[in-house]
Each structure stands twice: as structure tokens, then as C-alpha cells.
Amino acid sequence: MLTLLFDGIAYGMLLFILAVGLAVTMGLMNFINLAHGAFAMAGGYITVLLMQRLNVPFLVCLPLAFLGSALLGAVLERTLYRPLYHKPHLDQVLFSIGLVFMAVAGVDYFIGSTQQIVQLPEWLKGRTELGSDGWMLGMGHYRLFIVAVCAALTVALQYLLTRTRFGSQLRASVDDQRVAAGMGINVNIVFLSTFAVGSGLAGLGGALGAEVLGLDPSFPLKFMVYFLIVVAVGGTSSITGPLLAALLLGIADVAGKYYIPKLGAFIVYSLMIAILIWRPQGLFVRKGGK
Amino acid sequence: MSAQSSLLNSSRFKAWEPVLWLLAFAAPALSPSHALIINEIAIVALFAVSLDLILGYTGIVSLGHAAFFGLGGYVAALFAKLVMPDPLVGLAVGMLAATLLGALASFTVMRGSDLTRLMVTLGVGLILLELANKLDWLTGGADGLQGVVMGPLLGRFEFDLTGQTAAYYSLTVLLLLFLLLRRVVHSPFGATLMAIRDNRLRAMAIGIPVNARLAASYTLAAAVAGAAGALMTQTTGFASLDLFEFHRSADVMLILVIGGTGWLYGGVAGAIVFKLMQDAISSITPQYWTFWIGLFLVVLVLVGRERLLRPWTWFKRPSGGGKA
Fold first, then answer.
1. Residues lower than pLDDT 50 in chain B
2. Per the confidence metrics, is the pTM higher than 0.95?
3. Do A232 and B253 touch (CB under 8 A)?
4. How many other β-carbons are positioned within 10 Å of the β-carbon of residue B26?
């Protein structure tokens, strides 16, 4: 029972790190980016390849995955995404689906379609159990590690957004792009760095999640729905919304698959549709936004 | 030209339209070896035309249109297997099921932004995929539904391996539903749909019942998509989870965009181009065909989907502004 809850939280935290970049870019640029999972996959593959071929230790791979995907994100933002900010949503959807298809087929071609396995270091493999039978809490060390990393990142992000100068520039650009630009904020740079950080976080999430979620070329398609659920349900105006939505989704998914395996992902999708019909703008939306 | 005659003009049959249909109907007889691909093109065209009604005419971006396609297909196949093998009754039952689902699902597309609609349509498609996967006692699960034997069409024409009957069957259904939709989009009802697409607020202000119209067009599109799905399983004698897959919804959107949205022949033209392209490319690289679709989509959007298919506009400057 508690173990399930814990696993759900770990899963939810992971989803949050994967999807938070998407939440910010969608809120900031009003851009429907279905290709976000491709950046996560890039991070995952960077980790796997570095570990398997060059024997780089796991902990070193994580920052590298972040940097690699952030770089990829920055390059794509500058070259491909920027011309599309003001196109209709249909164009954005088509474009990002196209990117996903290319990423899936490209990875398949270069690396192969088999599931990749991450060799965790020894100290992350164990499992600690607390309490007695009724309320036993079993925590896999790796999941504990995920929760710790993601919690630290969440706090850091929250700090970055609310306390720093960059954060206030970003929030100003989200609220009103034109006025922000008029105030002398270089909106393009803000966009570019936000997109890069968002992609980097997705890459880090992909690297962390490679062991939990599995990593194969169809990753961006399989998890695209989950990222979008987090963003659509959580709303795009803050990072607490997506965080709560991700935790809810993680717990609902783990519990649903454990208690009613027959129904599988069914619960999650029905829940999402119900929530979106009830609150079309997302569950946790600040009043009076745009 | 008076306003009335210019309005009527757009709905009048052009000289090339009967020619096109005659050619389509002559094609399976002229080259019997291509009857199978003609059949597929007709089905995909019907599917794309149904998406055009909600995407091109009503302005709903849907990523879950395969839900109706798959439901129509599965219901028609199950009906043939469990109740009776007559194809026309099966087609009607498949359409009916898709219509009911469409009417139910139309409540989900009335509110919210593009993102919300994208998510709920996608969600409906995924739920059906999950259902078809888990109800394996009924649908055969991941193995697909096998052993569907169709009876002869109208009691006379057997479905054979060359696909002649199948091609004529699909073409006839395509023609009938196409004419129906053509009538619908050129009617005052169709005009209100376009008004909703262009500006929902103004449409509401001049007294158009927006929600009722959205529901009606979504349901109609679902019925037509269900017919396409039913044709698919009836002519192949097989239903699998592939009918519900995400890439099917994405493909049909691509098809429609290739041919042009907001124009019923766009779906037909797109289907012909797409299927021939798929046939050509996948005979070269069967496994990585999606890469080329992806590349095509990216280029299409970056160049501008209005311009790629009209080569004579490539060298003109884009005529300033537009509605962006």
C-alpha cells in the first residue's frame, strides 16, 4: 500500500521532470509541441550509449544527458521552431508529429529497435524496507534517488522562476510577449534559453527514466500522451500545477495497473477526459490569466 | 454577378467532376492488377474526407479520428463473424456504432482550447485501442480478429482475391457518401460550420447554435469514418489493433493536408498521392518509411502548406500579412 504510493510518487516526479519543459514552452510560446518526447529519448540514448560503449559512470552521464539534449533543443529552436511560433496550431501539430516520426525512424536506423538496458551502479540497486506488514514501506534505492533528484530540481526550478531576474523576465514574457519586449527584455533569448533548459530537463528525465520506463525507439510516441496529460491537466501558468498533475497521474497509473491490471491505462485516459471536460483549461489554473 | 448566383456557382458541379469519377470507376477494369490499391485509396479517401468535415470545415484539430475508423471496422467485422455475413448490413451496423460514439464524443470537443480538444480526441482514440486490446475474448486482442468471412455483395458478387468487387464496392460507397457530404457542406448548414471555424464568437453572436452544429458535424464525420473502417475490414477480412493506432490518425491528417483542407476533393487527391508515394517508398525502404513521412511533414510546414502544392506560387513574394 505505502510501497505503491511511494512508487507512484517516484513515477510522478519523473513525469514531472520530463514534462515541465513542455509546460513552460507551451505556456510561453503557445506552441503545441508533440516532439517533446524526442528530447527525452535523446537524453536516454546519450546515457545508454556513453555507459555501454565508453564506460562512463552513471552519475557523470546524467549531466551530459542534460547538456546534450539542451544543446539539441537550442539548435532546433533556433532553426526550426522559431518560424512556427505564429503559425496556426494545425501546422505546429503536423510539424512536431513529423519530427517525432523522423526521430523514431532515425534512432531505429542507427541504434536498432531493441530495448536498451541501463546498468545501474551497485549502490542504487538495493531496497530498504521500513515498518511492519500492514503498513510496510519498501523503497527501491533507485526510486529514492529519483525522488531526491527530482525534488531538488523542483525546488531549484521554483527558485529560478520566482526569485531570480531571469525568472521574472520569463514570467513577464509569458504574461505578455509584446509588452515584455517593449520593456527591453530580449524575448528571443528568453525563449531560446527556456526551450533549451526544458529540453535538457526532458533529456535528464529520459536518462533517469530509462531504467524505469524502458527505452526503445518508440519512446516519444509511447509517452507523448503522458506528457501532454500532465500539461493539459496541470495547466501551463505555474509549475505547481504540472507537478501536482504529474504526481496524480503517477499514483493513479501505478495504483490502477496494480489493482485492476485488466483495465490498464484505461483509468488514466478516462480520468483525463473527465477532468478536461470539467475544467477545460486545466485543474490548477490561476484566476484571471489570459 | 449577383450574390445569389455567385453563391450557387460554388456548389454547382464542375465539368471535370463527372470525368474524375468516371475515370475512378473505369480504373479497376482497365488495370485489374491494381484493383487492391484502388480499393485502399478509395477507403483512405473516404476517411480523409470525413476528417475534412471536422478539420477543414469546422476547425476542430483532432488527433483521434482513428477511433471511429477502428470502431466501424471492428463492429462490421464482428457483425459478419457473429451475426450475418451480408456486407451491406454490416456496413450499416458499423456506421451506426461509429455514429453513436461520435454523438457521445461530440460533447468532449465543445469546450476548451485547441490543446484540450487535441487531448480529448487523442484520449478517446487511446481508450478504444485499450478496449480492443483488453477485450481479447471478443476482439482477439493483439492477434487481431481473424476468420471474418464476408458473404457475396447484394447476394451476387463474391469478394475475390483480385479485389475487383472490393474496389467497386468501396468506390460506390465513397461516391455516395461524398455526394452526401458535398451537399452538406454547400448547404446553409455547411455555411454555418465555416462561420464557426472562422470566428466562433461572431458565429454565436449572429445566432448560430454553435454547440449543436459542432455536435452534428462531429457525429456526421464519425459516421463516415466508421463507414471507411467498415469497408477496410470487410474488404480485407481482417481487423487488428492497427485500425486504432495513433499513426493512422496522424496519416489521415497528413493526407488531408497534402490535398488541402476545406475542400472535399482535397481528401481524395491527398489519398491518391499519399498511397502511391507510400507504395513507392516502402518498396525501397519498408522499415524506415516513417522517416520520409516525417521529413515530408516538416518540410511541408516550413515551406507553408498552401504553397508546396501550388508550384506557381513558389517564386512570388508571399502577399503580406494574412491572418497569421
1. 317-324
2. no
3. no
4. 10
